[in-house]
Amino acid sequence: MSPRERLGALVFAAGAAALAAGCQPATYTPANSVAAEATSPWHPEAPRPVGGRIVFDVRDHDFGQIHQGDLLSFDFPYRNAGDAPLKVDRVAASCGCTAATSTATSLGPGGQGAVKTTMRTKGMRGRVSKTVTVYSNDAESPRTLLHLLATVVADVELQPRFINFGHVRAGQGPTDRVEIQVAKDRKIQILDVESSSPHFAARLEESDGRRFIVVSLSPDTPVGALNERVTVYTSSKQDRAVSLSVQAIIQGLVAVTPVSVSFGAIPSGEYRTRTVRLQHADGRAFQVTGVSATHPLLNPEARPGKGPGQFDVIIRTVPSHEPARLSGEIHVRTDIAAQPEIIIPVFGVVSPPTTSASARSPGP
Amino acid sequence: MVAILAAVLFAATGASRSASDESTDPKAPVVLLFGGDLRGRLEPCGCSEGLLGGLPRRLSYARNAAARGSVVIGAEVGELTPPDRLDRQSALQAETALDLLAAAGTRVLAAGAAEWTRGLEETALQAADRGITLIASNAPPGSSVADLHTVEARVGPRTLRVAFAAFADPGIFGDGARPAGLAEPTAALSRLLPRLRAAGDWRVVLVAGSLEEARKLAAPGIDLIVAGHGEDLDGFEGERVGDTLLVTFGALGKALGRVDLTFPEPQGPPIAHFRWVPLTGDYKDDAEAARALDVHQEALAAERLVERHPKVPHPDGRFVGSDACASCHPGATKRWRASGHARAYETLVTARRTADPTCVACHVVGLDFTSGFTDPAGTATLKGVGCESCHGPGASHIAMPSSPYGPADARNCAQCHNAEHDRSFRFDEAWARITHR
User: Fold this and answer.
1) Which of A12, A220, B48, B319 makes the best surface tag, with the fewest CB within 10 Å?
2) Are residues A240 and B126, on separate chains, in Cβ contact within 8 Å?
3) End-to-end Cα spacing for chain B
4) pLDDT tens digits for B180-196?
5) From the CA of B225, how many Å to the nearest CA of chain A?
6) SS3 label, residue B302
7) Backbone dihedral region of B279: left (phi > 0), alpha (psi from -120 to 50 degrees) or beta?
8) In angstroms, rounded to a whole number, what is the distance separating the alpha carbons of residues A236 and A234?
9) What stretches of A184-309 adopt beta strand conformation (E)?
């Protein structure tokens, strides 16, 4: 049994967890675990071999405030403080943005090496912490965690980074805004702002020395999902064009949730059920006068919901043993003059059986 | 009140966590599988070997555990899709993810930023249709979404009740985007705790938040806390906070958190073993899941999401396509035509991923921009990774060839050849293969 396995086979009596009431530090190496030391075969009172021992003078490095996009490098020196060769088996970073390697894979007693790290900060913002894990044959600390910290500042930041109007009733024209934040040590001009859609307008506004992008949704935006962007042009070389995502789901007098249905892959001979909720925006009672489907394998039914002005449309697929593509629509007819018909797009595919013997049906 | 967990065992299984571990581990009566923070990553990028994760592997793993006789209870901790996106692609990703998570035994879903942004009602309806309960324990009073949910597992003569609560850390929403009415998790848990204790023999708190935030929720009577916004701490063994075991599993569905519950005494409290399970290629893709992902691609194609991809003007002007470069740069063009970059779109055709905007973005020129790729017929010269993928839009350069134009360096490569797409990428070697001065 390896030392690591021995450490792993520890049982903590949590009832007797009086031994460590309260929070243990966020360290994950067994050597740093109070409970692990208490029950380790290498208890401090017992004689034990030393072997290779990895010692880092510094385990955390804070780059401080840096600019988004900077490539950051730092070396964590280490030495073998043991009495046998130290083997560094592997170095792994917690994030694809970070690269880490050890200058040595094997060090004799007293030998010195370093874990060289590089962190790419493109796309990061705010306070970031990335972890590098060093695996070695150090019996007490087979896994050592190193931390890279930084406060990433972009030339131009939008706070928040997107506008989500959420569910908007057709005919309404809500307005929202985001703040444009410019790095304090950079002289950057905001040149222009442009909307990708005729359904909303974007303009720059200053208020109390702060700059904002104000986005106004047009009242005549058609029913459906809106997924567009606003582009802010600046004099920054790094952030010449900053994109703001603008999203909304425009609903009629009756809100439809979700606005479309996916049945995914339906195994041959099985069926699936999906629910779409219709909710009158004002909570008024209304009637569903008919429900139909454009595909023969779709079987919809409308049932009064639990709340006022609510219906649930239950759509069940008809089991089929033949491959079929369920690309169609559910048509719901109502007694609401302003919205006599609601259309719900549907997609799914009846698939031949798979070879997975233990398949469990995910539905209905 | 149900007795406090009497014993917790942290099982460290060494650095190797391959498929063989699954088949050689002692069978546990109950296996809890935790995932989350998927952010729409239904499968790892297919452009490179050695990438972790993907729902087909996860389904395979869960089915393997179930086939060995364990009761598998899955729990997903938020962010089925990117939290800042409400578009059709992410809506379809959410539905496909729910299909496959349900097939993998997932019974509860903690509402994260993505679910709050999309709307709890929508996710709750979609989840319920698949036998999954959405939980948002710090939703405003009067919310129609569950604030806790109990899953029962038959273990020999007894029934174990595993009770789940779920909290979204306000910090995950970013400045100005915190939902109205979202309660502080500590206060909400304090109110919920008596009911949570009564609801289960074993109590689990799911946190759409960091390990640090999750740690603050440890309290007597809570047996397990699962942090959904964790770093990729390969081999993390869990942490004990008082009587509570605190675990996480990393980001983007690359690993699972597995907690085995065993019962030394038939009627006694369970012992918990935690293990971090990287979803490596050792786990075969489940065939049903692979088929579901093909259908997902068909759904993307049916909605023409590549053609309808939102675009903005490029600050450096218009794209013109690589053919426009050939007359002045014949040598570079010849070298480029012989490269993998020139055939990058064809690799997507082979992989049947031409309908997926996430994949297409790295295999064409300028998908995000108004003069960039829209479809293979209408913008045929923008297929593949072309000259302008690295050098930028060329219209201004053609109009004035003497003007400075598009120096390229490692940063250009890193947009696609990063660790999420290409683990084996070595800039120096790759640069030598494509250089064309």
Assistant:
1) A220
2) no
3) 75
4) 899 999 999 999 999 99
5) 13
6) helix
7) beta
8) 5
9) 190-195, 200-207, 210-217, 224-234, 241-251, 254-257, 261-267, 273-280, 288-293, 298-304
- The answer to whether B118 touches B83, Cβ cutoff 8 Å, is no
Q: What is the pLDDT of residues B221-278, one digit of tens each?
A: 999 999 999 777 777 889 899 999 999 998 899 999 999 999 998 888 999 999 999 9
Distance from the Cα of residue B427 to its chain's centroid: 27
Nearest C-alpha of chain B: how many angstroms from A262? 7
Nearest Cα to Cα of residue B385 among B352, B422, B412:
B412
What is the distance between the alpha carbons of residues B362 and A117, in angstroms, rounded to a whole number?
27
Q: Is the peptide bond before A49 cis (omega within 30 degrees of 0)?
A: no
Cβ-defined contact of A196 to B96 (cutoff 8 Å): no
Distance CA A131, CA A73 (A): 14
- Give the pLDDT of residue A352: 76
- Tell me the C-alpha distance between B181 and B186, whole Å: 15
CA nearest B74: which of B100, B36, B104, B111? B104
Could you give phi then psi for residue A75, rounded to 5 degrees? Answer: -105, 130
How far apart are the C-alpha atoms of A156 and A147, rounded to whole Å?
Answer: 27
Q: Which amino acid is at A247?
A: Q
> Which residues from B are below 8 Å from A237, CB to CB?
none
Half-sphere exposure of B127 (CA within 13 A, CB side): 25
Rg (CA), chain A: 30
Nearest to A265 by CA among B22, B100, B303: B100
- B421, closest residue in chain A (CA to CA): A96
pLDDT for B50 beyond 60: yes
Q: In tens digits, what is the pLDDT along chain A, a chain of 364 residues?
A: 333 333 232 222 222 222 233 333 222 222 222 222 223 333 444 445 589 999 999 999 999 988 887 889 999 999 999 999 999 988 888 776 788 899 999 999 999 999 999 988 877 777 788 888 898 999 888 888 899 999 888 889 888 888 888 889 889 999 999 999 988 878 889 999 999 889 999 999 999 889 999 999 999 999 888 888 899 999 988 788 888 989 888 988 999 999 999 999 999 999 999 999 999 988 999 999 999 999 999 999 999 998 899 999 999 999 999 999 999 999 999 999 989 999 999 999 998 765 543 333 333 2
CA pair distance B189, B209, nearest whole angstrom? 15
Q: Which two tokens stand for residue A314?
A: 């239950």
**Which residue type is seen at A211?**
R
Whether B288 sits inside 8 A of A354 (CB atoms) is: yes
Residue with tokens 């919310």: B143
Q: For residue B123, how far is the Cα from the chain centroid?
A: 16
Angle between helices B287-302 and B55-67 (to 10 degrees): 150
Residue of B80, B237, B420 for testing the chain A interface, max A β-carbons within 10 Å: B237
Burial environment of residue B124 by CB neighbours within 10 A (0 to 12, 13 to 18, 19 or more): buried
Rg (CA), chain B: 24
